[in-house]
Amino acid sequence: MRTLCASTLISEVFVIGFAGLVAMKDPDLSVTMVWTVCGIAMFLCVALCGMITRPGGVALGWALQLALFASGFFVPTMFFLGVLFAVLWWASVHYGRKIDEAKARFAAQQSA
Predict the structure, then answer these.
(1) Average of per-residue pLDDT across 71-92
(2) Residues whose CB is less than 8 angstroms from the CB of residue 78 and which lie 6 or more positions away in sequence, other chains included
(3) Distance between the two ends of the chain, CA-based, in angstroms?
(4) Can you give the chain as a three-state secondary structure string?
(5) pTM higher than 0.85, yes or no?
(6) Is 86:93 a contact under the CB 8 Å cutoff?
């Protein structure tokens, strides 16, 4: 699960960075605010890569997906990308757990 979730989160780092470039063109948003928010979100994505398997890691990932979707109020394209990454996050968690279970079964069979 960790590999799939981390891949999704690292992809989000790039999307957030590009969304920051788009948000800079909005005259209502200051450059400092845009890059502060984007920088924090990008840092959280990278930090969460190491916390996926810890308690609450997946829930924090869902909170990040919600924040990514909510950023659509400033960059409308992010509504679409937020939904897309929420689906990718669900798939990473769901299929990642299935892969982990299959690996555990295989390891148990090999040791028996």
Answers:
(1) 96
(2) 19, 68, 69, 71, 72
(3) 25
(4) CHHHHHHHHHHHHHHHHHHHHHHCCCCCCCHHHHHHHHHHHHHHHHHHHCCCCCCCHHHHHHHHHHHHHHHHHCCCHHHHHHHHHHHHHHHHHHHHHHHHHHHHHHHHHHHC
(5) yes
(6) no
